[in-house]
Each structure stands twice: as structure tokens, then as C-alpha cells.
Amino acid sequence: MVLDSIEHVPEHQKVVETLGAQWGIWGAFFIAVVCLIALPAKRSLLPVEWEILGVSGALGLGLAGYEIWRRRNRTVLVKDGEGIAVFRKGRLDLTVAPGEIKQVKAGLPLMLKVGAGLGMCAAIFTAIGMMGLLRDKKGIADNLIILFMGFTCWASLIAAAWTRFSCAHLRVPIKGGRLLVEETVLVPSSRLKELFP
């Protein structure tokens, strides 16, 4: 019988949700944009630059904040006799039968579209940024933003591939959910047998 608080569950029994880094990757990009526009400015910024700074700063802080919040509030699954206990925010949310949790996979066509789009953007922005840095010595900040966009797309592509191929995507019910009745929880594929022997 699993206790109602996650602190009382032995560490080796916890299957902790693993998370991709998409929110953090894009949050870091928008924060880098703010730094590259604001820090080297030796003149007063134009109104459009202030708008870009405001939107980028809000997006960057919002995405980074969400990344921190979700890492502190991971879902934990624990095998509990014939059932699986679902812990959210450190407390037992519900216990479900293994059949109530469904494993899903993103379709290959969708993954290829996302991967091809990110890969193409990564290659284009990286090439444009590098060429701009080599040719234009005055627009360094602009070219660095373009180059960082390329690096961000590469990082996003790697993170998407990692979550697709090394994690199992489980649809886990939510107790009393009003907007959502289930959530997608990623767990390491190597730990699936602990939940579903």
C-alpha cells in the first residue's frame, strides 16, 4: 500500500516524469535576444526595438518560469500492488489500473514534418548568421540573433528527437480534471517494465 505523500515512497520505486527542454530552450533564446539588443546599444533605442525587447523579455521570462515550475511539479508514478499510484505535486492524486494508462506515440509523418521544418530552419539561420558575421562587421548583434535562432532550432530538434525516441509517452488520468481529463507524462522507456510487468 502506497502512502499518500511521495516522501514516504522508497526512491527506487518512483518512476519520475522526465521532461524535454523545449520551453527552456525557447525561453533562453528570447532572453538572449533581449541581451543582444539592449546591452550593446550605445544610442537610444527606437520604439520598435523597445517593443521587441518587451515582447521578447516577457516571452523569455514566461517560458523560463514555466520550465522551472514544471520541473518542480513532476508527476511520479509508483507501482502499487495491482494498480499504479499517481502523485502530483508530491501528493497522491489517484490510483488507477494499468489499463487506464495508455501509451501513445507521435505519428511518423508528424515527426518528419516537425523534424524537417526545424532542421531546415536550423540550417538556414545558422548559415545566414555565420555568413553575416563574416561579411558585416557592424551588424554583429543582428547576425548573432540570427545565429542564435539557428542554434535554438538545432537544440529544439535534438530535444524533440530525444523525447520521441528515448521516452515513453503515457496518457495518465487526472482526478477531477475540469479542463483536462488526462495528461501526457513522459517516462524513460527503460522503466516501463516496472509499471507494466
What is the topology?
Elements: E1 14-16, H1 22-38, H2 47-72, E2 76-80, E3 83-88, E4 91-96, E5 102-104, H3 108-135, H4 140-166, E6 167-173, E7 182-188, H5 192-195
Antiparallel strand pairs: 1-2, 2-3, 3-4, 5-6, 6-7
Helix pairs in contact: 1-2, 1-4, 3-4
How is this structure best described in words?
The protein is α+β, with helices and mostly antiparallel strands and 197 residues long. It is built from five helices and seven strands; from the N terminus they run E-H-H-E-E-E-E-H-H-E-E-H. The mean pLDDT is 89.
Characteristic key phrases:
3-stranded antiparallel beta sheet, 52% helix, 197 residues, 4-stranded antiparallel beta sheet, elongated, alpha+beta
Q: Structural class from helices and strands?
A: alpha+beta
Largest sheet: 4 strands, antiparallel
How far is the first residue's CA from the last residue's CA? 18 Å
Could you tell me the number of beta strands?
7
